[in-house]
Write a structure and sequence with these properties.
The protein contains 9 helices and 12 strands. The protein has helices at residues 56-60, 63-71, 93-105, 113-128, 134-141, 191-226, 229-246, 251-260, 287-296, and strands spanning 6-18, 29-44, 50-52, 77-83, 144-147, 154-159, 168-173, 180-184, 266-270, 277-281, 300-304, 312-313. The structure holds (3R)-3-hydroxy-3-methyl-5-(phosphonooxy)pentanoic acid (PMV).
Length: 331
């Protein structure tokens, strides 16, 4: 039973379809909000510490929580988190926590998703020190979005430049209604380290690879507008090849990609790489078979649909006895 006075925000997960890493440099990326929910609950306790499940140390161990709470000058709060996402899997768990907490604590909350996306990016950047607003904007917007570039679909908001990178325009793209499969490799990834390693490579001459990824993402956007499933899959495979060139794959990921290639229209790293997760586009109706193939390759697969909505705050539901009722669990 949810305790009286507890509020809960629910955020989807995310998977980058095209353009990870290149988006850090302002090139366009395409990102999917997927139906893998994370719930963040907050109980306000003015005059006390910030705690996670009652533990001040637990709260301090999660830099995203600390930066989000600090950015809005939060008073005493006790936070709890339930998530269907594996941690450090490249599926947006940190951004989901950041967006969820800020949806509950910021002045405008989820009523102004653009402001929330800006706040969430600032908190995530403060915690991570590098990176683009791709994750936080996707989780605020829901659906399918492009980040960077701009002018591709209905404009949602713009994120201001940070340390000579950006700005990033965030546009709404159409959802063709396909099912996707994401698969966690079991190898946790460290976004900050991988983004910094790519930065060194780009500085040393890999900038044309990043440009090619940006150009490919634009072709991907056109294919999504046409609903051209085969073309989207083909471009996913090409995008994976460019990520290999950038040095963010490894032998284990390549083994999995090789096993999945014949069974999918497209399969690629999603997110920072060197671990984390893969994203596959199955042929229509073959998602269960693709999930089985991923499981056989030793990964943890999830068949997902697009979550049409981003982060939201559950209205306090009231039972006949007048008590708040518990929210849906993230099993
Ligand atoms: O692996 P994730 O979910 O942290 O995604 C990172 C995506 C990058 O483009 C590699 C970095 C970024 O901040 O955009």
């Amino acid at each position: 039973m949810r305790e009286p006075g507890t509020q809960t925000a629910t955020s989807p997960g995310k998977a980058i379809l095209f353009g990870e890493h290149a988006v850090v440099y302002g090139f366009p990326a395409v990102s999917l909000a997927v139906d893998l929910p994370t719930m963040v609950s907050v109980r306000r306790r003015p005059g006390t510490d910030w705690t996670l499940d009652g533990s001040p140390e637990g709260f301090q161990r999660i830099p995203y929580l600390v930066e989000a709470a600090r950015s809005v000058g939060a008073e005493g709060i006790d936070v709890s988190i339930r998530s269907s996402l594996p941690r450090a899997s490249g599926l947006g768990s940190s951004a989901a926590v950041t967006c969820g907490l800020l949806a509950l604590l910021s002045k405008t909350g989820p009523g102004d998703l653009g402001t929330l996306a800006k706040l969430a990016y600032s908190a995530e950047f403060a915690a991570q020190g590098v990176g683009s607003p791709a994750d936080t904007s996707t989780l605020c917007a829901g659906g399918i979005v492009s980040i960077g570039g701009g002018g591709y679909g209905k404009s949602l908001w713009e994120i201001a430049p940070r340390e000579n990178r950006g700005p990033w325009k965030v546009d709404r793209l159409p959802d063709p209604g396909w099912k996707w499969v994401v698969a966690y490799t079991g190898l946790p990834k460290q976004t900050g380290d991988v983004v910094s390693a790519v930065g060194r490579k780009v500085g040393a001459g890999a900038s044309s690879t990043v440009e090619q990824i940006g150009a490919l993402a634009e072709r991907g956007i056109a294919a999504l507008f046409k609903g051209d499933r085969a073309e989207v899959g083909k471009l996913m495979n090409e995008n994976h090849g460019l990520l290999v060139e950038l040095g963010v794959s490894n032998p284990r990921i390549e083994e999995i990609v090789e096993a999945l290639r014949p069974q999918t229209l497209g399969v690629k790293i999603t997110g920072a790489g060197r671990g984390g997760s893969l994203l596959a586009l199955p042929r229509s109706g073959e998602e269960a078979a693709v999930a089985r193939a991923f499981a056989k390759a030793g990964t943890v697969p999830f068949v997902v649909s697009i979550s049409p909505v981003g982060v939201r705050v559950a209205p306090p539901s009231v039972t006949s006895a007048g008590a708040a009722s518990p929210g849906r669990s993230a099993s």
